[in-house]
Amino acid sequence: MDRGSTDGAARVTTRTGTDAPDTARIAVETLDTGQAVSELARLAALIAEANAAYHRDDAPIMPDAEFDALRARNAAIEARFPDLIRQDSPSHQIGAAPSEGFGKIRHARRMLSLANAFTDEDVADFTTGIRRFLGLPPEAALAFAAEPKIDGLSLSLRYEGGVLVHAATRGDGETGEDVTANARTIRDIPHQLTGAPEVLEVRGEVYMSHADFTSLNDRQSKTGARTFANPRNAAAGSLRQLDPAITAARPLRFLAYAWGEISAPLASSQTGAIARLADLGFATNPMMRRCETLDEMLATYARIEAQRANLGYDIDGVVYKLDDLALQERLGLRSTTPRWAIAHKFPAERAWTVLEGIDIQVGRTGALSPVARLRPVTVGGVVVSNATLHNEDYIAGRDSRGAPIREGRDIRVGDRVEVYRAGDVIPKIRDVDLSQRPQEAVPFVFPETCPECGSPAIREPGDSVRRCTGGLICPAQAVERLKHFVSRAAFDIEGLGTKQVESFWRDGWISAPRDIFTLEARFGPGQPRQLKNREGWGERSAQNLFASINAKRRIGLARFLFALGIRHVGETSAGMLASHYGTWSAFRDAMAEARPGSPAEADLLAIDGVGPVMARALVTAFEAEGTEIDALADMLQIEPAEARASDSPVAGKTLVFTGTLERMTRAEAKARAEALGAKVAGSVSARTDLLIAGPGAGSKAKKAAELGVEVMDEEGWLRLIGGA
Ligand code: IVH
Questions:
Q1: Which CATH architecture has domain 487-552?
Q2: Which of 7, 47, 521, 630 is 20 to 30 A from residue 515's alpha carbon, by CA?
Q3: CB 259 within 8 A of CB 154
Q4: CA of 710 to the centre of ligand 1 (A)
């Protein structure tokens, strides 16, 4: 159980032990209202005391099991007497104090997202890929559950002993926000379950029906409150209310479609597990079908799409999930998506409007991006006034290789253009109507200097993007990099968002990331100019900002690498680099040594997912900014990457597979090895720890023998990892 921060813990009024009042001994079922009130008060105080002792004083006053039992009792009483739930209820107090927003909950099992399919071929590729991964012949039967993809937000509900103990949003998939109090107000969410496994995390979608959305917006506009652009935003805004009374007044719904941690299996199939959730009292989607063939899957998609307009709530596609849970387990996960499921999206929505202007934005890596300013138009229920135009070739009507797109039609200011958007992605311009082109419209001339700093903007051969060469002297690049640095997936500094970064930057308080960590020394207590005196700031908020900056002086290696904002290094690659090198110093040394042709470069390139482009970007970034980055790193404590599954015998080892494997495909073998914390390389080198050689192994086995690398066969490998 997560015993999060207890700042603001209630004053202790009742002590644990022999002097506990009689109510402590009464079964939840037999408490009367008066007894429940005093019991909830006693539990709130006791749990707060235990939390403070545990976190603040590092001196626990009770075993974890007893603490968990108190929380479960509290939750059970709250479930019986929802009207008596206290403002300071311990159920709301996992993570930070409620006054500072929501607490955080670390998901016991990651909350995943889904890969997308846009065409029937994509779906066929998905099923073929699964057969290939599992080594099944094309004719082998494989059943899938198909169901609508609801356009809401996902929520994870944790039940312990049948009692709802907390509810968390997806967040970044690892950690979400504690919205327990709000989730309890949703009618479809049971507070108590009968016959459920001891631990059960139910996952599903919170959404709002069209009818409820319309009446909510009506009410909002009557009272002058903000209205919502679509039901999804309304659902998100309603669930993320700090005052649960507001959530309670918003008619949210919940449909269960997945699960997280479970202490006992729900069933052996996806459809069986969902039926079990329905038996336990959850709303599940009645449109779910079990499909035995690709044709059935596509027919279900067509049927669901045909009913889309009559469902009364928004859906944006169909999700297919492999029905057999044992096979799901074998397929496992990619970094953020399962291999056994895919979302087949409905085609994007489109509309025609007028292109009123083209602005050029300069991004964090200096890329000049053309943005279409549009006469506002509603596309799929959302008002769109900006869209991306990709790059100068796209505007000119050709692709990156010079071949015509839109039959070569260019796009000009004043044109009628077709906009489309699919899901959450940025709207795009699809087409242009030449018959409506104004006479005075002229071809768009893409700037060759940066509109922000005036430096030359150049295109490297083979690159479709024009980039400002000003580097950090370019204000746009500097400020965009700062915004990236503090963003959620990077340093995630509370109280330092886009607005604050821009204003500190404008006033010269922060010009590079490391200035963030000297803010307190320069503008904190005792300094001539102080943050607390700045407009919009005060004593408390200034203190909070310094505290949240200081809290981030300790940071995981992966986040740190991602935060540097090096071209081509996204969250996933940063994670891979971190787990490959383990520590900042190992990574830093490797970057210093990774000149073209060096062994360090070969090692870098051997990392799964690192290609020559990313390798070059890394080396160049450290050549140009190594000193600055080192100075930043010196101000921080960069935590080594957590070795995944470090108790496995292959964790941290580098393996190579060669020859024919008989018990599983190469892809499955590689995925399993990686899940156990091993690295899988394509070729044998001095850094290889183990070669797994099937029949027909050739030059790699020879090389391994020369280098003295340990070699084993597939059976030996399976025994080693306990999968024989
Ligand atoms: S399954 C492991 N099923 O879509 C799979 N997701 O794009 C976890 N969603 O984050 C998700 N309807 O919020 C699943 N029937 C459905 C869904 C669904 C909507 C959402 C969910 C997820 C997102 C991924």
A1: Orthogonal Bundle (1.10)
A2: 7
A3: no
A4: 43
For residue 384, count other CB atoms closer than 10 A to its CB. 21
Which is more confidently placed, 273 or 26?
A: 273
Q: Is the CB of 273 under 6 A from ligand 1?
A: no
Give the Cα separation of 650 and 368 in Å (integer).
Answer: 45
- What are φ and ψ of residue 239, in 5° steps? -70, -35
CB 527 within 8 A of CB 542: no
In the residue annotation, 149 being an active-site residue is answered as yes
Q: How far apart are CA 252 and CA 213, in angstroms?
A: 9
Distance 637 CA to ligand 1 centre (A): 36
Q: How many whole angstroms from 149 Cα to the centroid of ligand 1?
A: 6
**Which ligand 1 atom sits nearest the alpha carbon of residue 154?**
13
- DSSP structural state of residue 427: P
Cβ of 318 closer than 6 Å to ligand 1, yes or no, is: no
Q: For domain 12-93+348-436, give the fold.
A: OB fold (Dihydrolipoamide Acetyltransferase, E2P) (2.40.50)
Q: What is the sign of the dihedral through the CA atoms of 180, 185, 186 and 189?
A: positive
Confidence (pTM)? 0.58
Asked if 79 contacts 164 with a C-beta cutoff of 8 angstroms, the reply is yes
> What is the token pair recorded at 90?
């311990």
Residue closest via CA to ligand 1's atom 2 equals 112
Instruction: Please tell me the distance from the alpha carbon of residue 232 to that of residue 151, in angstroms, as a whole number.
Output: 6
pLDDT tens, residue by residue, 439-465: 999 999 999 999 999 999 999 888 889
